[in-house]
Amino acid sequence: QVQLVESGGGLVQPGGSLRLSCAASGVIFSISAMDWYRQAPGREREFVARFLRGGGTKYVDSVKGRFTISGDNAKNTVYLQMNNLRPEDTAVYYCKGEINYQDVWGQGTQVTVSS
Prior knowledge:
The chain is mainly β. 0% of the residues lie in helices and 57% in strands. The chain has no helices and eleven strands. The chain has strands spanning 3-7, 10-12, 18-25, 31-39, 46-52, 57-59, 67-72, 77-82, 91-99, 102-105, 109-113. Strands 2, 4, 5, 6, 9, 10 and 11 form a seven-stranded mixed sheet that branches. Strands 1-3-8-7 form a four-stranded antiparallel sheet, with no helix packed on it.
């Protein structure tokens, strides 16, 4: 059984930075991509960033220039470096992996941006 475990969330002031990590474990024979999503209170879950295993990234417009997604294929881990954080970035951040031809979700990590 494949699991995704996120870490790195917390409380940060506006303009600050956080780095999220998502590690996949279990019996893994294929990873196509790993994504970050987020869900703010009262809002639907939204796509944030994508890391393609073969190279390439994609971002939602609201985080371009502030967030950077990267990956360590050997460790089956993806990272989300978040800079210049804003209050509207406050949400639970979820990792999703396209692993073994299925979508696997992590449990989420809370990011709160507040002074």
